[in-house]
Amino acid sequence: MASGLSDASSNLSFAVRFRPVGPWRFGPDSGARDRVDLIYHSDAFFSAVCSAMSQLGLAEEWLQATATAASAPVVRFSSFFPFAGDTLLVVPPRGLWPPPESTKTRYKGAHFVPLSVIEALLADKAIDEDRWTVDGESECLVPSNPGRGPFRVALRSSAGVDRLSNAAVEIHSTACLEFARGSGLWTIVQFSDEDAKARWQAPVRSALLLLADSGLGGERSRGWGRSEAPEWQPWAPPQSAAAEQAHWLLSLYTPAENDAVDWKRGNYATVVRTGRIESSARWGEPKQSTTMIAEGSVLLASSELRGAASNVAPEGFPHPVYRAGFAVTISIPWRTAA
Description:
By secondary structure, the protein is α+β, with helices and mostly antiparallel strands. The chain is 15% helix and 27% strand. Helix 1 packs antiparallel against helix 2 (59-65) and helix 1 (42-55) packs across helix 4 (194-214).
């Protein structure tokens, strides 16, 4: 089960693949045009789905079922991770990665690691150093043959022309991700129960198809961020029978009020999320910043993590703007630091 995929039709989780048909861009925290983030975070994806649901006439019902629901959200999304062929990569769990350095491979240079490698490490199996190498540009652990990552960072130039004076031309470059053939990005879509799946699977599929056509991330007006129709497959995460389980995060996470996280243990990192609002009410205003728990963090809690959505609209904004911090996790054995 190294791929994490299952044929169980009743599964509530799906791995959804996007095969890009051009460049994609995820703006870095600095906002620099010549830089690009290598990950499309779950909060940004949730915002994009909310926009698509609005176009489908489902915005109010969708927000009631997710962002403002008193119970667990009906649907959760992980962040986007790369894939190459049949190999799914993820941000590895903190504390498990990197393994001890070898004379052949600088493991700490890999930000994305195949699920099969993570499963082997969780089973206390050694990595075959002759089989894997780190692709420095994509920061992915990839097979030694051919040794190429699923994407490359590129700079594309464009020119802004002053419409009042054609002599005034401003040339600038923008960083983007360009994907290899057979590669792309994948995410996990989880439904809370069978009723949620029955009600929301079709609308979510429609929303994702709309986003594949219109684009995700930055520079969508240039045709960036588009993909072929998303490919859905049932998803079954690796299973663990360890006595003490930990929660390995595959999404950004904001703790819900009743999430009983043991913050004195675990192995986690935080990230500050900002961004600008895309709303016909007032376009481009900055969102309030939020400190969130990063992907790859490993948390200990007495029950399943829920997560929460926070209203990040600036004071006086005409409507709420939600940043989703719902937890998408895999249970793994808890191991204390050596």
